[in-house]
Amino acid sequence: MIHVRSRKENNHRPTVRFHFINRLGVFIAGLALLTLTWGCAHGAYSVDVKYFPTKSMAELKSGKDIRVTVTTFEDLRKIDDKLEVGWVWDPYGGKTPLFSRLVKPSMAVTSAVKEIFQKAGYQVAADTPRWNLKDDSIREEWGPILIGGGIDELEVYCVNDVTTKKYRAKAKITVILANAQTRKVFYKVSANSSASLDHILFSEGKLAQQINAALSDVLDKIFEGTEINSKIIAEAGK
Predict the structure, then answer these.
(1) Following DSSP, what letter does each residue of the chain receive, concatenated?
(2) Torsion of CA 80, 81, 82, 87, to 10 degrees
(3) Which of 73, 136, 183, 192 is the most buried (most CB within 10 A)?
(4) What are 145's strand-pairing partners?
(5) 141, 131, 87, 138: which is closest to 106 by C-alpha?
(6) In Å, how far are 167, 210, 214, 219 from 50, measured between CA atoms?
(7) Minimal CA–CA distance to 145: which of 53, 58, 215, 230?
(8) What is the pLDDT of residue 36?
């Protein structure tokens, strides 16, 4: 009888070990899945900041020989690292930074503005000088028309909760037009925009979609229509 009980106990030991190992594997796999889903507090995320036009500035009907110089847009955001464009908060309160992957936000905006003016029919200078947006620093060789401005806001963040991922983005851009011959600013315009998304999944791609939507919309608001064309044509004709 004792021998029989001993054999039954030995027969159950492999089964107990199997269940324990199986449950341990499930637990580890689940933990790994949660880590991938929620993101972790180590390292950083990155996105490509790009302009995707939905509208366009009116094409020039006259004055197609107008030459403009687009200067590097100043990044006026009050942050130390100008590559930073947002944050991701995980369910445990951890915060992971988000950075622009390929170019600085200032160059992403500058390239977009150059593209807008090229498509409108202007002669856009190849050079992209730095300008501090002050009259006394304007150089005549940048003329006749100088285009500059600043990034007041450009960010996206995600509250990465267990059940819902809340994406929020905002952008504010200022564009300044100056006459390089008179060394005077003659037009200034600002606009802001926002984008949002609630989703069950987290991804860098969705972060990129929201920040690029906000950036594209704010630039389209500034340049759509004929107002900027009219201002430039009138100033160039003086």
Answers:
(1) -HHHHHHHHHHHHHHHHHHHHHHHHHHHHHHHHHHHHH--SSS-EEE------SS-BPPPSS-TT-EEEEPBPEE--S-S-TTEEEEEE-TTS-EEEEEESSS-HHHHHHHHHHHHHHHHT-EE-S---B--S-GGG--GGG-SEEEEEEEEEEEEEEEE-SS-EEEEEEEEEEEEEEETTTTEEEEEEEEEEEEEEEES---HHHHHHHHHHHHHHHHHHHHSBSHHHHHHHHHHT-
(2) -110
(3) 73
(4) 68, 179
(5) 131
(6) 17, 11, 10, 11
(7) 230
(8) 43
The pLDDT value recorded for residue 22 is 55
pLDDT given at position 237: 80
What pLDDT, on a 0 to 100 scale, did the predictor assign at position 92?
84
pLDDT at 24: 46
Q: Omega of the bond prior to 144 within 30 degrees of 0, cis?
A: yes
Which residues in the chain land under pLDDT 70? Answer: 1-42, 61-64
Strand partners, 147: 70, 177
